[in-house]
Each structure stands twice: as C-alpha cells, then as structure tokens.
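S1.2 Input.
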Amino acid sequence: MKETKKYLTIKEASLWATDYLGKEVTTSNISYLIQYGRIAKIGHNGSTQISKEELEKYYLSLDRSRENSWKEKLGGDLNWKLSFDNLKESDTTKHIHRLHPYKGKFIPQLVEYFLDSHTDDFKKEKYFNKGDIVLDPFCGSGTTLAQANELGINAIGIDVSAFNSFISNCKIGKYDIASLENSINIITEKLNNNINFVKDIEFEKVLIENLKEFNDKYFPVPEYKYKLKRNLINEGEYGREKEKQFLPVYKDLIEKYKIKLLKKNPKNFLEKWYFKNIINEINFVFEEIKRVSNINNKNILALMLSRTMRSCRATTHSDLATLVEPISTAYYCSKHGKICKPVFSIIKWWKTYSKDTVKRLKEFEKLKTNTHQFCLTGDSRTLNIQSALDKKHACLADILQKQKVSAIFSSPPYVGLIDYHEQHAYAYDLFGFNRKDDFEIGPLFKGQTKEAQKSYVEGIAAVLNNCKQYLKDDYNVFLVANDKHNLYMQIAQKAAMKIVNQFKRPVLNRTEKDKGAYCEIIFHLKESK
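S1.3 Output.
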C-alpha cells in the first residue's frame, strides 16, 4: 500500500490502522466506525472507501497517550498490562463467558493472570500449581471456576444467590451436545408451529418491515450518525418528531392484530415487564424444557431461556442493563440512532441464543481439563464448605479433605452498587428459586452510608474468617475491588490478615457513562503474623 494513497478500502484501512496503532484492527472495527458516524463513507468506483486523513485524525483524537495520562491521575504503579487493551471483546467474552449476562463480573484474562504460572515485573511469583484448589466465596457467574478448569486447577465457588450458582454450574457442566441440539430443534419447531403465536409473529414481522422503510428514509446509515457526530442535527428534537410521526402506524398495527400489551396492575415482575404473548411463549418453552430427561441438558436449556427472557423485556435498548420504566410503544433509540420497538416474540432471540450457546459449549469442551469445579449456594460467612461439598460434589469434597485450598481469588460485591438478586428477577419469578436478598453483602438497597460501609466491612471480614479454616497454612488471598471508601485495610485487620501487595489495574470498558480514569485494585492478603 502506497503511503500517498488518499482513500482506503475497508480492508486497506484495517491493515493501515493495525500498523498505525500497533494492535489488530479488524474490518469489522472499521465498518463500525463508518456505521456509527465516526468517519464518513466515500463511494469510489462502486466500492466503499474512507479518507485516510480522516481515519488518522479519528485515532489521534482518541489520545494515544492515554496510558501516560491515566498514570498521571492514578499513579505510576498502574499496571497497564492488566488493562488488556489489546484484546477484542470476543476475547474477553470467550466461549462460555457469554452464556448469560451478569453485572459486575471480571474478565477471564484477569483470573488467568493470577492463576497461571507466568511471572513478570508485577507478578513476581506463581501462586498455583496444577491440581491445586482455588476458592471463590463470591462466585457470581463463575468466571474463576471456568478459568481454573482451563488451567488444570480445581475450584470451589460459593454464592448466596441461587441463580448465580445456577449460572456458574451450567457454565462448567458436562453436556451431551448431540442430545442437546436435538432438544433445541424439537422445542424450536414446536414454538414456530404453535398456532397460538401465529398472529403475534405476523404482527412483529409487519411492524419490522414498516420500521425498516421508515428508518431507511429518515435515519439513513451511515449518513444520519455522521451528521449527529458533527452536530448537524438536533438529535432530541429530530428523534421526538419522527417518533411522533411513526406512532399512528404503530397504533394501527396494534389495533389491527389485536395485540395485548402490558397489564395495568401487574402482580409480579413478569407481568410488569413482559407483554402477554411473550409470557405465553416463555411458559410454553419452559414446559417443553421440563420434559427433557437429561438433567444437565435441562439446566442449560433453562439458562438459554433465561438469557432469552432478559432480551425480551418491554424496555428501551439503552435501559436494558438497568431497567427504568416499561415501554409499550415504538420509540426513538439514541443507542441505535433510529426508531426501535419493544420485543413481541421470543422466537428470534431463542434461536440466536440457543445456537450461540451450543457453539460456546463446543469451544469450551476443547479446552477443558480433568479437574473439578462446583458452586455451592449459601452464605460464605457461615457455610460449612466441607459438609456442603460432601452432599453436592463428592469428588471435590474428597480433594478438599486431602489438600485444602491454596488461595482465594474473588471479586466481592461493592458497597451499594448492585442488587444481585433483582438483576435476575425474571429468572427468580419463572424458575422459583428462593431469594436471599437480605443476606447480600453491600447490596444496592442499603446504599453507601457509613452504616452500610461498616456492615460491609463486617460482612467481608466474616467471609474471610469462615473460609480461613479451609486454607493451607501459607495461603494467598486475592480480592478485586475499587476501594474508594478505603475499607480493605479494616477488612484485612478484622480477618487477621495483612495486605502484602496491591496490583492496580485500569478499567477501560466500563458500562457507566463516566469514561474517565478509573482503576480497581487486586489486594493480595496473607496471614498476619
């Protein structure tokens, strides 16, 4: 490629950007920049091209010195390697790590960094050998368990949320893939052919066609987003105007197909956030899942349904992670830059997620080692781990009896940040898991008051004190946290431990709107002597 070339094809742009940035930039990355208006699409000789000068200006605007800037704000001890900024999203959500959404989970590469055998300028010794046991008393969605399996390490998880334990154990479960695919095909075919859902499916199909025609006219891609980025359109005014313009079309279709929307006086989460037809489809699939005889396959099918349910709530795309208010109409979506709609049938998402789940299970199967992992449901402050394992996982119980736990690696909940039960309320409603909201440590509903912080310190310390009896004498404890309240020194003291090291990592891809310099610390604790 000649340096003087002014315009680049998407392929040429990906090669140029890869060389310019010193890390891989795919054609999909370039297409994203075009689609979302970061750079303009230029038509030359019938092919999509972009200006090399504009692309270079875009990357310069990102500030390639971000590492130095963040270190100035957060300290020179910031371990930029632990930002994993060289990885694509597909790497940080590899195989089973995207089987189900979960707020507050850490990426698998962070777990690998501490569990594997490498050393570097920050991690000066290895902490695990193959066959060791790692304990995660705040197991969440099972990232530690899955990565321990990959690395040949046994793992025990504990979580007070029954659904969290369910997610974790589904991820590391053993499956008859051929039988699973057969069950998926049977359920999907029955869902497709159920005469009770034909009207609603036809309605959504016609609605999508009308939306496409309308959006192609008033929100052309990528021209519309390109203009937005350059403040050539007032997004708020224009979006409201077009939303109002499309509303009669939407209302006419609702009336024509006699679509039932949300209940006025909902009795539970499902009735509040799901249209009647969605609930009917969910119940239909759930009843079919109950007929599956293989228990592991039945569980993973239920997890697929839960993932599907989450994507079918009557909310806007921008509020999907944190629900605000139910929505029953078409709306202007700032996330996608067009008029969007709620979901009226689960079929599309069920098909998408069932296919994706099988693909991810197959990928993980190639990496699995002959080790044992299991997540117990219980309160880590009081749970008798040995006794609980004796009942739930005899092999892992026997290993624990013989060699004890080498280390803890966990990300405790933050103070007043996430409601770990409520984020999966739809699953609790459908599957009937018992909720233990009052047993959460640092839940959202308790806030971040001094009293909440004190309760948090007592809770985390109680977990460590309970778990210590299962640890080897020369144990290691790694806790991932953003300690903005400076609580972990107190926690360590109450657990008769000392903080021997702190690994500070930048967090680049946060879900919050604040994209400023932010870090979390991996506290390394040992027995206080």
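S1.4 Remarks. The chain has a mean pLDDT of 91.
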